[in-house]
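User: C-alpha cells for both sequences below?

Assistant:
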Amino acid sequence: PRVAGEASARLSLLVSLSNRFPRLHAISDPLPNPPKPPRFAMFLRAHVKGGRIEAAGQVAGERVVRIDVARGDERRTLWIRLWASATNFIVTDADGVILDAMYRRPKRGEISGGRYAGPAARAAREFTVRELPGDGTFNERLERHFRDLESTADRDALTSEVDAALAMREAKLTATLAKLERRL
C-alpha cells in the first residue's frame, strides 16, 4: 500500500509472525515471492494491494499494530498482533467483521465472518528502544540484527537435527555390529 499524501512512496515491510522473533519493520530489499503464494498472501493481493494507508499506529500499551487501508470505496483494517504465543495478522472490514486471518483460530473467534475490534487500549507504557550496533538507519540495523539471530538459530536447529540423525545412525550401526559379533 501507498502512504496517504505521498503518491509514489513505496515501502517494503516485513511482518514476522514467528513465535521466536515476532516483529514488524521496513526492509531494504523485498523478499522473493514463493512459487506458490500462501492463501493469506493471495487474499492480501486481492483485497489490500494497491490500497492507500490512511492511518497506522500501535494500539496504546499493546504489541498490536493497526493499519487502516483504503482501496477505492473499500476500507480495510489490518491488525498485526505481535504476541509471541499468539501472533496473528487479521484483516477486518469497516464494521469489524473478519475477512480473513493468517492463522484461523476458532476458539478465539478469529475466523472469517467473526468480529474483531482489536484489543482494548490500556494506559500507554513507556518502552525503551535498545540501541543496535552498526551503521545505517534503525530499520537497517534491526534487519541485520534479526537476520543474524535467525541465521544463528537456524544453524543451531540444523546442527541439533544433524546430531540427532547421526546419533540414531550410530546406534543402528552399533546394534548391527553387536548382532554380527554375536553371530561370529
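Moving on to the next sequence.
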Amino acid sequence: MSSSHAFDHRLSGLIGRFYDAAADNALWAGMADDVAGSLESTSAVLKLHGADDTVQLLESTVNLHVSDRQQSWATHWHRQDLWVERAASFGVSRVVTDHDLVSPIEQRKSGFYQEWLRELDIHHMVGAVFPGGNGALGVLGVHRPERAGAYDDTDRHKVSILLPHLQRAIWLGQQLAITAARQAVTEEVLARIDAGVFAVDVRCRIMSLNAGGEALLDGASGLAVSHGRLRLQDGLLDQCMAQMVQTSVSTASGHPVPPGAAMVVPRDGRLPLTMIVTPLRPSGIGTQTQPLALVIVRDPEAATLSTTGLRELFGFTRSEAVIARDLASGLSLDDVAEQRGIGAATARSHLKRILSKTNTHRQAEAVALIARSVAALDQRT
C-alpha cells in the first residue's frame, strides 16, 4: 500500500470516529491522541471558547493534562491563548500555523510561551478556530516541540481535510444532546403528570403511552385496548373520541379542522373521567415522524398528592398533610373526621392550622392551592 493510500485510510478512519463520537460523547476519549498521531505531533487539543470567557476542554492529549492544583493556572492560559486570539482575527475556519500568527521573537517573549508553552514543551502549532455553536468558538490545535520542526503545507492540507468533519460532528453532537435533553424532560413530565396520556394515530392505534395511561387501562376506568386501538366501552362515546382524534390528526398534518376536543366519560357509581384530544405534530426526530393525536385523560378518583411534598411545601405535620390531602381529594371536613377516626373539633383544629400555614382564609382557597400544588407531581408518598 502506498504512503498516500495509508494516509487517506488513516484520515478516513479518524473522520468516521468523529461522527461516531457525535452520537456517543464517550467516544471522544483518545481522539486527540489520534489527531496528533495523524500529523506526527506530540499533542493536540479540542476546546470551546465561550462568549462569556469560559473554556470547555472537549479532548486533549495526556501530556496536556494538569493536576488539580494546577487547574486555575491552566484555565488562565487557555483563556489567554495567544494563538486562539490571533487565529480568530486571521479568519474563522482558516487553517493556520504559529508562523502565520506571531513572529518567533514575539512568541518567545510572550507570557503565553514563557509560562505555558515552554512548560508543556510546545513550540509549533497547526490548527484552526471555527464556529462552535451557541456563540462559542471551537478550537483545534495540534502541536510539536521546537526540535520536531515547523508545520508545512502537507500538514495544513491534513487539517483542512479533518476540520469540516470535526466541526460538523461537534454540531451534530450538540444537536443530539439538545434532543436527548428534551426527550428526557418529556419522559419525566409524562411520568409525573396526573393524567393518562396516549399518543394515537388517526385510527386510534396507541403509539405510546405514559404510566398514567397504563394505570387507566389496567383499572376499571371505561377505557380499553382492542387490537392495539384505544377505545371507550360506551359505543357512542367511542365514536365521538374517534372523531376528535381524526380532527386532531388532520390539524397536526397542517389541515386545521374546527375543534371539538373535550368530553366527559361517565362511569356508573363513580366520578366521571374527563378527556381532551389535541394535535401532536411530527417532530421529524426518532420514530415520531407522522402526525398524531394526544388523548389526555384524568381520573379524579386516581389523583394523589404526596404528603411528603405537602410537608416540605407548607410545613405541615404528618397529620395535617394527610388531612390536607383528603380535603383536596374532595372529602368534606366531616368525612375526613369520620374516615380518620378523629373528632369534629380535632378536624377543625387541623383545618385552622392548615389555613394558617397556607396563608389562606377559607377552606376552598386552601383546597385549591393544595390540589394544584407541585405535590401532585411528586412521586413520593
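User: Anything stand out in the second?

Assistant: Residues 1-6 have pLDDT under 50 and may be disordered.
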